[in-house]
Write a structure and sequence with these properties.
Elements lengths: L8 E4 L3 E4 L2 E4 L3 E4 H4 L1 E4 L12 E9 L13 E2 L4 E3 L1 H4 L3 E3 L4 E4 L8 E4 L3 E3 L3 E5 L7 H8 L3 H8 L10 H5 L2 E4 L3 H39 L14 E4 L6 E3 L11 E8 L8 E2 L5 E2 L1 H5 L5 E2 L4 E4 L10 E4 L3 E3 L3 E4 L7 H9 L2 H6 L12 H5 L2 E4 L2 H39 L4 E4 L26 H16 L8 H16 L6 E3 L2 E3 L2 H4 L2 H7 L3 E5 L4 E5 L3 H12 L2 H6 L7 H19 L6 H9 L15 H15 L2
Parallel strand pairs: 6-12, 7-11, 17-23, 18-22
Antiparallel strand pairs: 1-26, 2-3, 4-14, 5-13, 6-8, 9-12, 10-11, 10-13, 15-25, 16-24, 17-19, 20-23, 21-22, 21-24, 27-28, 29-30
Length: 633
């Protein structure tokens, strides 16, 4: 997915009013949290650490610490680090899937998420219960996450450990677009941005892992590049070059600072490939200190201290001066400095452990560095390995730039969409807009207490249990068709499904949380055998079944059972024809074979279907009749 895939039609808003939260459109309203929900706080069993309450397996235990490593782009909480016993849960607050939670203390104060699991929450977690039906919880989360700085610095109370009590949370003001649909459109657009950020983050992590693996293999000689088979030698660094450390001019003498000479501190080592530093000293500062010029292509190593800079490796691409916390290994013609940089960088943890004594507080020194043993491949092989690793670095840099751009776009979208400066106009191209039969009075996805993501995760779990097994796990293509038919049967509509090559398809179930939630909640597990790949029921499928029966009743699966032994191609035909019939019905046009074929032919991803025997006139006519019986009966 490219950054350009953030797609929406926009129109510039006119007519604003000044409010407590700033300028908003005149048709928006301001409401406090206490008007649209019931703010509550979690609770913790006492005493902390009591084995009667903690480290059990009854319910997950959500704490502020649980949120520390959750990416900003992840909207749903699907797992926690620990769990409570049944007795411990009696002394805590139990929250249901779909609940909006807010961290009310600690480093993550103000961060909002939505629960994808049933869990207990400690007193560092607040929640908004019984959110009004015309309010979109995902919209609330996105707005709250723009307010974390203000919540921490302005609203939170407490001299030592700032916190948000339920009274303060209840007074939080939200700007609301006039309709649930507009709130959801904003939330969906921002969730699309989050999905892109998450996918780019995963891509970047994968590229870094690939580079790490390549370094381990290529720099150790375990894997050789094509054309190289000569044995490697080993030498101490001090046997073929030397190293030096720098210094710092007195900070009490202004005449030593602000000149034209670049001066590098150990804090700049994170730059890795150093071609620019902010520090500047004068000629006088250079003469009156132990700092010194070093040439380009020195391998630089952080020396002293307990911080992360000790053992950090970089290489300078410009001449500069260094401080006393950096060692510079001089380049020589017989050993590629970039190979040495990559090799020592791969030994970061080992370098951190080396010390001149004093319980590890002595840090590295020049003698230890001169004594380091390094591999000595032939120079040509060193250069070939450097090129291979540099290519991987280039790929990582491109991925980092794409991720940074996506985050910038997301920040801009939040500033514009959550203030109403830009209003979303919903595109209606491929989404099924109208039901053929009246929708259920209270369809599951609109019931209070759970979100669309939770709803679909439960559906995925139950379908995997009903239609998948160890020999034939339920594949995504078949499952998506069953989900489409389920929603058409229960709700009269199948919202969000697009016209894709395999028929109606909702990619959101894969990329916006439901599949991940179903897996993490244990509703399903992924299975790949010799021939097939898909989902089967997980260890906690009984939870999904319980929710499904609450939301859909027991007759829905009985209705779906008619498709149990139908081929996936048959389901593709049925769902495709039904989607075409819905389009025709919405346009007040007849739904006969000719018109259904016209709908299929006019969509580029569907047109090739008409060349398949599956979509012959007779098969389409039969599918039309079946759709009428299924959904209009």
């Amino acid at each position: 997915m490219e950054v350009s895939e953030f797609s929406a039609a926009y129109k510039v808003s006119v007519g604003f009013k000044q409010t407590e939260v700033g300028l908003i459109p005149t048709d928006w309203v301001i409401k406090p949290a206490k008007q649209i929900s019931e703010p509550v706080r979690g609770s913790s069993p006492r005493p902390a650490g009591d084995p009667r309450f903690f480290n059990g397996d009854f319910l997950p235990w959500l704490t502020v610490a649980s949120l520390t490593n959750v990416p900003e782009s992840q909207l749903f909480i699907s797992e926690t680090a620990t769990s409570l016993t049944e007795e411990g849960a009696n002394y805590s607050r139990t929250l249901q899937p779909g609940t909006l939670i807010i961290a009310n203390s600690g480093a993550t104060l103000g961060v909002a998420k939505i629960l994808g699991i049933k869990c207990c929450a400690n007193d560092g977690i607040a929640a908004l219960l019984r959110i009004e039906k015309d309010i979109c919880p995902e919209y609330l989360v996105h707005f709250l996450n723009t307010q974390t700085k203000r919540l921490r610095e302005v609203i939170a109370t407490g001299n030592g450990q700032p916190n948000l009590n339920t009274g303060l949370i209840g007074e939080l003001k939200f700007p609301f677009p006039p309709t649930f649909g507009e709130q959801k459109a904003i939330a969906d657009a921002l969730s699309d941005a989050d999905a892109l950020i998450e996918s780019l983050s995963q891509l970047l992590a994968k590229k870094r892992q690939v580079k790490q693996g390549a370094m381990q293999e290529l720099l150790s000689g375990k894997k050789r590049l094509p054309g190289f088979n000569a044995p490697w030698g080993r030498k101490n660094i001090g046997s073929f070059t030397d190293c030096t450390a720098g210094g710092t001019p007195s900070t009490n003498i202004d005449a030593y600072w602000g000149g034209d000479i670049p001066w590098m501190s150990s804090g700049d080592l994170h730059l890795k490939h150093v071609n620019k530093v902010d520090g500047r000293i004068t000629d006088e500062g250079l003469r009156n200190s132990s700092t010194k010029w070093i040439p380009p292509n020195c391998v630089l190593i952080g020396l002293a201290g307990q911080g992360k800079t000790r053992g950090t490796v970089a290489i300078n691409q410009i001449p500069l001066c260094i401080n006393q916390s950096i060692a510079a290994i001089f380049p020589v013609d017989s050993y590629d400095p970039n190979f040495l940089y990559f090799y020592l960088d791969s030994r970061y943890e080992e370098l951190r452990e080396l010390s001149a004594g004093d319980g590890g507080r002595g840090g590295l020194n020049l003698s230890l560095i001169r004594g380091l043993e390094v591999p000595v491949p032939h120079l040509d092989e060193q250069q070939a390995i450097v090129q291979a690793l540099s290519d991987l670095d280039s790929d990582i840099a491109i991925a980092e730039a794409r991720l940074a751009k996506a985050r910038d776009i997301k920040r801009g979208m939040m500033q514009e969409l959550l203030t109403g400066r830009i209003r979303l106009v919903q595109p209606g191209s491929n989404v099924i807009p109208l039901p053929i039969k009246p929708a259920a009075a209270n369809p599951p996805s609109s019931q209070p207490g759970h979100s669309w993501q939770i709803n679909e995760a439960v559906v995925i779990g139950v379908l995997a249990q009903r239609f998948g097994n160890e020999r034939f796990p339920l594949p995504r293509k078949r499952r998506v068709k069953l989900m489409y038919l389920l929603h058409r049967h229960v709700e009269g509509r199948a919202e969000g499904y697009l016209k894709k090559a395999a028929g109606p398809y909702d990619s959101n179930t894969k990329y916006k949380g439901p599949e991940a939630i179903a897996l993490k909640n244990g509703y399903v597990r992924a299975l790949r055998n010799d021939k097939y790949e898909g989902f089967v029921a997980g260890d906690k499928i009984h939870q999904a079944q319980h929710y499904f029966e609450q939301w859909y009743g027991t007759t829905t699966l009985e209705w779906l059972e008619r498709f149990h032994y139908r081929k996936t191609d048959d389901l593709e035909l049925l769902a495709t024809v039904d989607m075409a019939v819905v389009d025709l019905t919405a346009a007040s046009q007849p739904a006969d074979v000719v018109d259904v074929k016209r709908v299929i032919a006019t969509h580029p991803e569907w047109a090739p279907k008409l060349s398949r025997e599956l979509f012959s006139d007779d098969r389409i006519a039969s599918a039309i009749a079946e759709c009428q019986a299924l959904f209009n009966g």
